[in-house]
Amino acid sequence: MAEQQNEEGESYDNEVITHRLRDDALSKVATLHRKVAEEVRLSGTAIQYKAHRYSTVAVVISHDGRYVVSCSKDATVAKYDLEEGKIVASIKYVKGNCTFHRGQIFCLAISANDRYLVTGGSDAIIRVWNFSNLQHVKNLTGHMNAITGLVFRLNTQQLYSCSKDRYVKLWDLEQLGYVDTLFGHVDAVVDIDALSRQIFIKERLITAGSQDRTVRLWKVPEDSHLIFNGYASCFSIDCLALINEDHFVSGSADGSLCIWSIFKKKPVCTELEAHGRGADNQANWIVSVAARRYTDLIASGSCDGFVRLWKVADDYKSITNILSYEQSGFINRLRFSDDGEEVACAVGQEHKFGRWWKIAEAKNVITVFSLTYDTKE
Q1: Rg (CA), the chain
Q2: In the predicted model, what is the mean pLDDT of residues 23-28?
Q3: Which of 6, 180, 199, 357 is the residue whose CA sits 20 to 30 A from 14?
Q4: Is 22 inside a domain boundary?
Q5: Share of residues in the chain with pLDDT > 90 (%)
């Protein structure tokens, strides 16, 4: 009897291990969509630090979850060690040295296996750095105006960039060289995102065209793209993030938060005034969005004093605000860690792309707050 129970116990353990290994494999190749939003909680722990003199514009978390890298309008980059609780490396402009940015830095990204850090800004040059020590590797030139977004294709060294010059460019960091240019937007391209699509051997990315009021899905191998139009009264589309291969979220200056399907030309869900109205009775615009990829959890940032976490419905036709994290200032960029347990916020007194108004009581900081999940096995 005891032997039978042991065999049954071992069989159950093997099934559990097999199930977890399968889920892990599926999540890595982007076929598993997890429901985690109902289980998420604010852990109550947060780290906040000041790394820049002027507004923090962008932030990214390393793939191993240990480091947070941020950039600012003051032309600096800072690498923060979450384990040691301190800044361990930085990049600052040195007059006469062409390896450093001259002017504001708007975006950054980290390649697969935390090999490279790339940065871009108002000087229209992409600068490649060795992530481990922030030593300069190479400059990538070709854009003719400020670079506003950078993203790597998931688990690769393929880099995509977007710019106020209206172009999207492809780069290969294995060769440290230029690959292609994508044309289509008629206004500044202000945000970009990409996933893998490796199962279907596709290469696709999405971009936000600001005041041309479109999102474009680029089918790179086919050299074509699809156009998604904002709703009739949409003023602009300023930020976006892929939820999975077929759905994405966008935010606009009119305060609307939209969920899209790549099979529909219009949003399948629109949450008007997602961050309420300001003192001037105007809707607070959506400055940043993020998605915990392949789950039903997304986040949005504005200037209303809160980072908001949302649950996306199973049919993607509605979203529900489930949690709010208090944070004064412009939430210029949001990032989930790969495991979804941390959210990094680039916070500034000013909007990332302008100085239309200033929140005097806010601080130019980086905030990293933690999440826990009531996981049901």
Answers
A1: 21
A2: 52
A3: 199
A4: no
A5: 72
What is the mean predicted confidence (pLDDT) over 209-232? 87
Beta bridge partners of 117: 110, 129
CA-to-CA distance for 36 and 20, rounded, in angstroms?
A: 16
State the residue range of the domain holding 242: 36-373
Q: pLDDT at position 30, please?
A: 47
- pLDDT at residue 159 tops 50: yes
Please say whether the beta carbons of 332 and 350 come within 8 A: no
pLDDT band with cut points at 50, 70 and 90 for residue 3: low
Given the structure tokens 């300069």, which residue do they identify? 136
pLDDT band at 6 (very low <50, low <70, confident <90, very high): low
pLDDT score at 166: 94
pLDDT of residue 198: 54
CATH of the domain at 51: 2.130.10.10
What does the H/E/C string look like for the chain? CHHHHHHHHHHHHHHHHHHHHHHHHHHHCCCCCECCHHHEEEEEEEEEECCCCCCEEEEEECCCCCEEEEEECCCCEEEEECCCCEEEEEECCCCCCCCCCCCCEEEEEECHHHCEEEEEECCCCEEEEECCCCEEEEEECCCCCCEEEEEECCCCCEEEEEECCCCEEEEECCCCEEEEEECCCCCCCCEEEECCCCCCCCCEEEEECECCCEEEEEECCCCEEEEEECCCCCCCECEEEEEECCEEEEECCCCCEEEEECCCCCCCEEECCCCCECCCCCECCCCEEEECCCECEEEEECCCCEEEEEEECCCCCCEEEEEEEECCCEEEEEEECCCCCEEEEEEECCCCCCCCCCCCCCCCEEEEEEEEECCCC
How many domains are there within the chain?
1
Tokens found for residue 262: 């790549």
